[in-house]
């Protein structure tokens, strides 16, 4: 990768094919895919990912990465670099209300070795950055202060005063996307009543191959395995309660966890914790002029079933395939037809997943009697139907 310098006045402008704003997991994957295909790509990111230290505590922000995302990241060459750092495969996914009636979805049901991996967000981002080719121009630390567009190109002004002209800008700068606002794209959605506490814990068990979620009337409680004898615990409750929990010392939080979580958790010990508000957001349009949104900049989803970044990678894969194909045919990467084709496929798919998660949230997150009966029925049917179990397992890996 090349460290970027750009012109400070328009007469010196060089027109790049694509500028990606935001080098998180989604933006970095897009920048990598496009530069590998020979496009001229600039990437603007505020903060570079921290280097990997094998003895360091895992990042608190972890994600469950499904097989569909893994396959694409492998094709990009980043997955093997991540494997050399740290990640934890899981073979089984369990859901239950009462510990005596657990429904297990198993990778062997769909003849796979695993359903997915739990990865640290920072390490996945780092693996993508480590694989950037020489023709990618990186501006970091940098952010955008202004955007203007003509019918043929976009002009970004960076906080350094430098200016970058591109045929297309991809905004992958997260849920609070500044680029989305600069492009004038509105959003709709809401903040959920619930928030979630995430804790890194030491567990008494050897590395586990199962991720589980217990549904309770006050919200789900989940465990995600990490390499070695560690795991990530996710505790959903009303936001004020989550803030109270987040203010506890690790010792106090350990006690609270042991009291509230099912025995399957074991005698864990909290290492560190943080809390996250939960919001649903859907951009009104996925593009405006020559600015197109991907990942959390376009949509945020309840993390209940760990789908957010997997949807972002699905956006990234389709968008980069369309752009690479246009580039190979010497066509405009920012044409309305291309951006429309992207939006037509990805917006309904993302909305469907968001609404499915909201259905789960309603069904499993309260104690209204008819809904309690319905979810008990749903779990009983799931536990007895091998067809349904196979369907859920296929859904979990990212293929319908
Ligand atoms: C508690 C929790 C658990 C989750 N668990 C899962 C899970 O198990 N599986 C899953 O698939 N998803 C999960 N998610 C969702 C997942 O974390 C997000 O979908 C994912 O991080 C989005 O990636 P992104 O690259 O689109 O955006 P981000 O990760 O937000 O990255 C945006 C990047 O843009 C940079 N940036 C921001 N503004 C600017 C600017 N103005 N200029 C330059 N750079 C900028 C930021 O520094 C950052 O690097 C979870 C989310 C939460 C809150």
Primary descriptors:
single chain; 400 residues; alpha/beta; FAD/NAD(P)-binding domain; 9-stranded mixed sheet; 8-stranded mixed sheet; 11 helices; 20 strands; 35% helix; binds flavin-adenine dinucleotide
Descriptive notes:
This protein has a domain at 2-50 and 125-188 and 281-359: FAD/NAD(P)-binding domain. Helix content is 35%, strand content 29%. The protein is built from eleven helices and 20 strands. The strands form three sheets. Strands 1, 2, 3, 9, 10, 11, 12, 18 and 19 form a nine-stranded mixed beta sheet that branches. The chain has an eight-stranded mixed beta sheet with strand order 7-6-14-15-16-13-17-20. Helix 1 (25-36) runs parallel beside helix 4 (121-130) and helix 1 (25-36) runs parallel beside helix 8 (308-328). The mean pLDDT is 91. Flavin-adenine dinucleotide binds next to helix 1, strand 4, strand 13 and helix 8.
């Amino acid at each position: 990768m090349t460290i970027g310098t750009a012109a400070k006045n328009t007469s010196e402008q060089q027109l790049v094919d694509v500028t990606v704003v935001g080098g998180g997991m989604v933006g970095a994957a897009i920048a990598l895919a496009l530069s590998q295909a020979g496009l001229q790509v600039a990437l603007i990111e505020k903060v570079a990912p921290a280097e990997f230290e094998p003895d360091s505590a895992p990042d608190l922000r972890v994600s469950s990465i499904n097989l569909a995302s893994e396959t694409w990241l492998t094709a990009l060459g980043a997955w093997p670099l991540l494997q050399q750092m740290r990640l934890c495969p899981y073979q089984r996914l369990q859901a239950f209300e009462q510990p005596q009636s657990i429904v297990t979805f198993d990778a062997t049901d769909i003849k796979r070795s695993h359903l997915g991996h739990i990865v640290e967000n920072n390490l996945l981002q780092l693996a993508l950055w480590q694989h950037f080719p020489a023709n990618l121009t990186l501006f970091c630390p940098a952010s955008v202060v202004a955007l203007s567009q003509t019918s043929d190109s976009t002009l970004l002004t960076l906080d350094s005063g430098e200016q970058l002209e591109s045929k297309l800008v991809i905004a992958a700068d997260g849920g609070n996307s500044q680029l989305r606002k600069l492009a004038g794209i509105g959003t709709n959605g809401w903040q959920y009543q619930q928030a979630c506490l995430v804790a890194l814990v030491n567990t008494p068990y050897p590395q586990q191959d199962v991720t589980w979620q217990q549904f309770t009337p006050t919200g789900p409680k989940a465990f995600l395995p990490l390499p070695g004898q560690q795991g990530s615990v996710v505790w959903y409750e009303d936001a004020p309660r989550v803030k109270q929990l987040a203010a506890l010392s690790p010792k106090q939080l350990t006690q609270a966890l042991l009291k509230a979580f099912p025995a399957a958790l074991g005698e864990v010990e909290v290492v560190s914790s943080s809390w996250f508000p939960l919001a649903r957001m859907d951009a009104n349009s996925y593009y405006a002029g020559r600015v197109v949104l991907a990942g959390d900049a376009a949509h945020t989803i309840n993390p209940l079933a760990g789908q957010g970044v997997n949807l972002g990678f699905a956006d990234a894969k389709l968008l980069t395939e369309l752009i690479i194909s246009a580039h190979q045919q010497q066509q405009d990467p920012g044409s309305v037809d291309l951006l429309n084709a992207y939006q037509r496929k990805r917006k309904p798919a993302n909305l469907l997943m968001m609404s499915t998660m909201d259905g789960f949230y309603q069904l499993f997150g309260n104690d209204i009697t008819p809904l309690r009966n319905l979810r008990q029925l749903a779990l009983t049917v799931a536990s007895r139907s091998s067809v349904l179990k196979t369907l859920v397992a296929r859904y979990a890996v990212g293929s319908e």
